[in-house]
Amino acid sequence: MARVLISEPHEDIEALLRLVVVRLGHDPVGPEGDAVDAAVIEPCVGDGLRLARTLRARNVPLLFTSIYPPTFEALELEPAAYLVKPFPLSAIQRALEAVLTDKALSAAGGRSD
After folding, report:
1. Is the peptide bond before 86 cis (omega within 30 degrees of 0)?
2. pLDDT given at position 23
3. How far is CA 71 from each of CA 10, 54, 67, 78, rounded to the nearest angstrom?
4. Residue 110: its pLDDT value, please?
5. Which end of the chain, N or C, is less surrounded by CB atoms within 10 Å?
6. Taking CA 56 as the corner, what is the angle to CA 31 and CA 18, rounded to the nearest 5 degrees?
7. Domains (range + CATH), the chain
8. How far apart are the C-alpha atoms of 28 and 66, rounded to whole Å?
9. Do 28 and 22 touch, CB atoms closer than 8 A?
10. What torsion, rounded to 10 degrees, do the Cα atoms 8, 42, 2, 26 define?
């Protein structure tokens, strides 16, 4: 079971993201979470970009979800996905499964290509 940090300012969207994470069999945690395996962040609101920079420095895979198109600052962090809202929940599910599979393969010494 992976720990997935969710940083989303809108409660309804956060609830949907948590649901996706739980359905995949993982543990959703808030921004105060310390050891995380991946993060779903709204980079364009509040402290999202700052949080993303901190996590990227720790090599945590990032998935960005926003109503805004990607900015240079966000893309510079090389997110595994940048999904513009509204998007189908299946899109975040696929992206999350991909980063967690890649992370598991890397940890096991395997290749993800």
Report:
1. yes
2. 95
3. 20, 18, 12, 11
4. 61
5. C
6. 35
7. 3-107 (3.40.50.2300)
8. 19
9. yes
10. 50
Q: CA 41 → CA 48, 106, 107, distances in Å? A: 6, 22, 23
Reading the block at residue 89, the tokens are 């929940």
pLDDT at 46: 85
pLDDT of residue 84: 96
Ramachandran bin of 78, using left for φ above 0, alpha for ψ from -120 to 50, beta for the remaining angles: left
Six-digit token string for 92 = 């975040």
CA–CA distance, 79 with 60 (Å, rounded to integer)? 10
Task: Look at residues 33, 31, 18, 38 and name the one whose alpha carbon lies nearest to residue 99.
Answer: 38
The CA dihedral of 24, 29, 72, 113, to the nearest 10 degrees, is: -40
Are 44 and 38 in contact by the 8 Å Cβ rule? The answer is no
**Helix segments in 1-113, DSSP class H:** 11-23, 48-57, 72-75, 89-107
Residue ranges, the chain, pLDDT below 70:
33, 110-113
Residue 16 tokens read as: 């949907």
